[in-house]
Amino acid sequence: xxxxxxxxxxxxxxxxxxxxxxxxxxxxxxxxxxxxxxxxxxxxxxxxxxxxxxxxxxxxxxxxxxxxxxxxxxxxxxxxxxxxxxxxxxxxxxxxxxxxxxxxxxxxxxxxxxxxxxxxxxxxxxxxxxxxxxxxxxxxxxxxxxxxxxxxxxxxxxxxxxxxxxxxxxxxxxxxxxxxxxxxxxxxxxxxxxxxxxxxxxxxxxxxxxxxxxxxxxxxxxxxxxxxxxxxxxxxxxxxxxxxxxxxxxxxxxxxxxxxxxxxxxxxxxxxxxxxxxxxxxxxxxxxxxxxxxxxxxxxxxxxxxxxxxxxxxxxxxxxxxxxxxxxxxxxxxxxxxxxxxxxxxxxxxxxxxxxxxxxxxxxxxxxxxxxxxxxxxxxxxxxxxxxxxxxxxxxxxxxxxxxxxxxxxxxxxxxxxxxxxxxxxxxxxxxxxxxxxxxxxxxxxxxxxxxxxxxxxxxxxxxxxxxxxxxxxxxxxxxxxxxxxxxxxxxxxxxxxxxxxxxxxxxxxxxxxxxxxxxxxxxxxxxxxxxxxxxxxxxxxxxxxxxxxxxxxxxxxxxxxxxxxxxxxxxxxxxxxxxxxxxxxxxxxxxxxxxxxxxxxxxxxxxxxxxxxxxxxxxxxxxxxxxxxxxxxxxxxxxxxxxxxxxxxxxxxxxxxxxxxxxxxxxxxxxxxxxxxxxxxxxxxxxxxxxxxxxxxxxxxxxxxxxxxxxxxxxxxxxxxxxxxxxxxxxxxxxxxxxxxxxxxxxxxxxxxxxxxxxxxxxxxxxxxxxxxxxxxxxxxxxxxxxxxxxxxxxxxxxxxxxxxxxxxxxxxxxxxxxxxxxxxxxxxxxxxxxxxxxxxxxxxxxxxxxxxxxxxxxxxxxxxxxxxxxxxxxxxxxxxxxxxxxxxxxxxxxxxxxxxxxxxxxxxxxxxxxxxxxxxxxxxxxxxxxxxxxxxxxxxxxxxxxxxxxxxxxxxxxxxxxxxxxxxxxxxxxxxxxxxxxxxxxxxxxxxxxxxxxxxxxxxxxxxxxxxxxxxxxxxxxxxxxxxxxxxxxxxxxxxxxxxxxxxxxxxxxxxxxxxxxxxxxxxxxxxxxxxxxxxxxxxxxxxxxxxxxxxxxxxxxxxxxxxxxxxxxxxxxxxxxxxxxxxxxxxxxxxxxxxxxxxxxxxxxxxxxxxxxxxxxxxxxxxxxxxxxxxxxxxxxxxxxxxxxxxxxxxxxxxxxxxxxxxxxxxxxxxxxxxxxxxxxxxxxxxxxxxx
Length: 1239
What we know:
By secondary structure, the protein is mainly beta. The protein has eight helices and 88 strands. The strands form 22 sheets. Strands 57, 59, 60, 62, 63, 64 and 72 form a seven-stranded mixed beta sheet that branches.
């Protein structure tokens, strides 16, 4: 049947159109439609007349089942309950009659009920093949240039599949697959590939017996127009029977719109002509099966389509799905703590409301734009917050959906308040004549604090502010302390004690150092006294002996210098015994102040100041003007920031603004000052730079307060701007590539609006750049990893080879700690800066410098301190996989939850992060180049923000990287063999050389390991139940040690697995060639992909196989021309002698008896002709000589005595009568005449 005739029946056939896209949908078609759909097919023992005996088979895709169901025409049912759970069952039909004809489908029983039905099998009257079905399989839903697979299911095996296209009389493609499905591939999809396609089948032996054509399939190339928008009115959640309007809107007029539902593409394809540039798809009375994921697109008259719209999920339900409510960190909380109630439900895009039992109105609301985390927060809970809470959906449209019962959470507030924190200032170590302040902190107001000394139960102090001053008089302060408190609402209830804190000093475990210091101090005093006595004795002795005054003065000076040197050495010994750490008393983190406006060309018309803090414990923000005036106080939001609207600027608004963040009993340092200088002038920027170093690059920072401004850098004495920049944020960095003397001077910067007419700011305060002589930069590091969790202890080490230096520690360019110079050690100088307990706001970029009087050093290289556990943890993946050969490259991709972050890669056992990377997206790729054995180990990653104290995420889940090659390779076997029929079970056995190792099964083309086991012996068994066709491939395995040095083995030998009913066909070749030569044999070499097989050679024209061989070599001779002809070979597994492979491609041998034989070539003919000519010439010469021989034999005996020369001479004279006689003179002279001799 041609496609023209098919067009006449198009009205009787069901058609559908599908767009092919190179985009990944959030819900793939395969996962929605095909995941749990069983497979239905036909088997028969009459291949040429299959309708005489038919058996239907139904197979579940991924699990065994106890019940199967066969449906006919949606009414008749046949049950099969096998004796044991299985993957597939058969339904015998027998001979096909009119009563058996109809539409068949099958289902299988799952734990949750019956599965989706299989594809529909249409059995028509006897004498006809089943009508095939036709659909598209596109893994990435291709656009132009992508590949498309069109699948045709013929229901029977060993059929010929034909693909037809409208407008073509001949088929465009055909296939003879081994199964029931043919896959037609359209590579590199182009507009020319568009059109209507059908599929038909016929039996191989009966090419005249055709099936009915499949349903036509129309292909449209998409992606040529922008994607439309799809919205639901009145909303995406409706009750059955209610009406719904889906609106598809496009930016182009006059298009045809289409709506599809992903759950059932065949039955849910709707077309509509547009109203201007939009179309409405109306559902008058919704039904339950109308729920699903919808999307729309549009196309023109030439079927050029648009991109798909975003997926819109529609819910059709009588009652709302149940919501779950969880309390984090626990439903039992202590008074004053914070708790979050996490509401979770299956419906997306709907607001949520939090209710408390006994109250009619909701306590909190979350709209559709703020339910990313779906959490309700209760801060500083009290007894009034205790109760039963529930979460409900919040709709903005009317519907008759009933509200069901919801999961509730009972919040219990316990009696005892949470325990406080206890810290010591300036450190936990007493210094001479110095007191220590113990600071008690809690997150809510306190009535009274109590300090207790654990070694003495009676020692107790009470204070209101929580600061206890401890002195070390007589060594009584060096003990262990703890504290508790009570609140005003419950004055009789004391909290739990804080964690103990031990103070140390001369009376503690460092008494030996104190004694040594005191002994040295006493020795110095004694030396000075002795010096005085010696001087007095010398003067008395000199006066008595009358020695001159000069001698006395010199002797006194020498003795004095001796004692001074001795005292200095002792002092150095004293100070060198104990190296003290300088504890960093971290101030409350400085907040950030900036301005925002909705008038970018005239910001002063409406200005809002924002203040943000890096500390998560900030409660309030305070805005100050000119350092004294309190403008406003705002509570902190969840983003730890607050807005201060100023509105339109007036003269009263001019001044210098800065803000503070207010924590528990602590106020931060002020932010950088924002100066408003007029009503129509931009805020005055701030300019800053690090100390300039000769010959090095210098960055000048200009902070402009407003986003999207242009920045200009000026230098005093230069009329034109030095540099101009456009900044994406609120600041710009001007770069001087190489600082020289000519670059010294006063610099300032200004900002202006992006578009004309430009509105300018006042110039910043000038900044002088002067190149000074500097010491080399110090060496700066942390003793542990700079990526820490809150509460960790961090020590910074700043050192230099220079002697007697003082050190300064900087955080984000601001000085936070210092250490005075030490005269004790004659060697290098060093300083240790300690953070006892790191907080969220302590992260940032740290650096240090040292100085000696007026000369400073260059700044050290910065150390990025990252405080984790503030953002959600990222994911870390390895490409091409975690098992790598030595010398190969590995890419580790760290995927975060936010964009614009900085990423760091860490390796277990390494203190410093391996790599840093800043990206504008939400992921970073770290390349491990040419990995070696020492690169094996656990890797993790973290991301953090760079603007607010380096607040970081939780560490990712570690991923193990194995670099193979250190251990002997294992062996890999497959049981029962490398060829397995679909549906059977298979076991991989990986045998290693070391016990108690971890084994990993790998498959070529798959990034992640398939399975991992840690058996107790030397072997791991990987079981694969019910293998399918996609399980075919090349497998290998490795094993490794679980602990350092994480040694891994080489890959095992690759093992190729075929999941098929027939092994793949072998290859057949001839050696030395396919042409017989006289007396020569030909060896036919049959080669297959599997070991342990037996080969058989077949010759056309012979019924029985000609030869069998285990190595695949067959020797063929051409006796009587019987060797020529077509040969093919096949093989069978020795383990499965009844399963034969497909025959190889035919190979033709030719020779003398063959039609193409040509034994004698042109060269042979020429050589043979020359041989004949030479032989004939020799024969003629011999015949002539034979005739002459008798005459020589009959001569007289007297001639016999002559010598040979005379005889030959006479013979020649007789033989040449016509020759002229030689002259006498010549004879008499005895001249020798050369006689001709016949040859």
